[in-house]
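User: Assemble these into one structure.

Assistant: Restating your components, then the assembled model:
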Amino acid sequence: MPLDAILKSYMPQLVPLEGHLTAAAFPLMKIFPAEFCLQRAKKEGWVNEQTLVVETSSGNLALGLAIVCKLLAHRLTIVSDYACDGFLRRRMEDMGATVEIVPAPLVVGGYQGARLQRLAEIRAETPDSWWLNQYDNSSNPAAYGQLAALLVKQLGTIDCLVGTVGSGGSVCGTTSYLRELFPEMITVGVDTFGSVLFGQPESPRTLRGLGNSILPKNLDHSLFDEIHWVSAAEAYTATRQLHRETSLFCGGTSGACWLVARSLAKRYPKARIVAIFPDDGYRYVDTIYNNDYLREHGLYLSSLPERPHEISSPLDAVSEWSRMSWGRRKLAEVVAPAFSEVV
Amino acid sequence: MPEGLQEYQLHEINSRNGTKPATFALRRGIGHSIAQHGELFQGQIEDDSGALTRCLLSLPCRSLSSTAEFTPDDSGTVIVFPPHKTKAKTVVELTLAYFTAHPIGGVLHIRSSIPEAKGYGSSTADCVASVLSVADALHSRLSEEEIARLVVEAEVASDNFMFRSAVLFAHRNGIVLEDYGKDVPPLDVVGVDAAEDELVDTLRHPPAVYSWQQIQSFRTLSCALGRAIRTGDTCLLGRVATASARINEQFLPKPRFRELLNLAEQSGALGVSVAHSGTILSVLFDSRDPLLEQKRERLERGVDQLGITNTFRFRT
């Protein structure tokens, strides 16, 4: 199968929403970094036809990589955990990937640690293997040159970019490319409570697909002007409202992104704002798009908050949508003063 | 017109164009070309198959020009004045060979107001004028694409101002990657040469070796370039030029680049562009900007304070 033609079918739709807000709505954004990282590794000689590709992920990067490995005829093993839903697993296995689920978390290191431990075992057993490593592989952000190119081609000057942050790849990559043209462009990151990405203490997270329990190398804090923290209930309610109002059928991270982006569109009515919607809604039919599920898990909100809580330290973000001016600082510059205030 | 040219040669020339063979006397031909003031964009882009192509877009400069006058004869050899314009000699020979296998030669005189080895595209201008003068002498016409191929063959790398509209030009392949179907939007330019005594030989200066990350950046920049020209967005065009200049600064640094960039920003210019094989730099303004005069004066005062005296104004 021609990979290029398949990849084109995964290009985002640019959908005009309220004001000058445009959504770049991907069916499966992560197919692009998966493809780009693998092609770079092949060019650099890390991967040949026999090489076993490995990655640990319980989400869309794994699915994107399964598609790319199928089309380029590479063997693939994905190490995942309980969070890998059956739908995702069946799709990956359909396309020939081996999916291993780690049975239990490590006492120290949790599921993330258990996954990395199993990954290390596989790599030791198979010397001719290559780990994509989306968190630290610098080809991940570099993959978003395509998105930046599409955005400037279709929209021209861009004043503000909003995106959810997990590995840092999409927002940091797209920002870097766009800032070569528009150095003053405002970049807004969307995180969730309990994620360590922007200085919150780690705790269990309900909202998946954004946030992280570790700090990826691909996250460059000094690119961000503003950070928002959004809860699962807020993100899911926004996802449903987005669907009700526009018919856009997206995943929960898109809802979180839209919630923040439309508040920016109200704040800056003349600004050309782009919001990155990373995936479509099919994986979430039984959860986000299921009212019983939402009520059962206390994730159903009768209405969305109008505006975020304004906070000045990541530690002040507790449980409801919060906004903080980040000012293109490094993490230490933000967290150290906050720490001294607490002490 | 020298005596002795055979009429059958002319039959052949005209039958190339698919027209009915006719006889003409060869005549003295004239050709003319504008110059450029560096490039608005230069980089290397990757197509869907992963192939890399070097490409550029010239900043046209109509106030400098080259004129060639070709007097054909049946000597079979080409003589060029001034004699150091060897690329022009080569392109005349290529053009004659392109038209006919018969041994036409002649004398080419070039008169040019374009400084050499600074980034004005003097050699491309000479070559374009020369090709046109030969075609004129042979009562023939060449398409822009044919001219481009002949000039690149003679020069190895050439600029793109043989095309009337703005094009993204593969300057080492002689082909158009994208025809924007429009002119570069109206710009007022302050040209600066902060290295009056330096010269850059295009062929001796090695092509930039871009990193794969920079090649990714050029993808965004070339898309922005296309949009800027199609929509006449001078602001975006200035951004593209500046970004391209910044990347290429690593390969052929311009003296006082940082200071000139800051001055351009402070004076409210659209951006800067540079010569990628030369020393000149251009500060770009929108010709339709009502504050053009004030902005340009502010810039020129700053340039003066840097001690740079070699500046010149023109409009695209």
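The radius of gyration of chain A is 19 Å.
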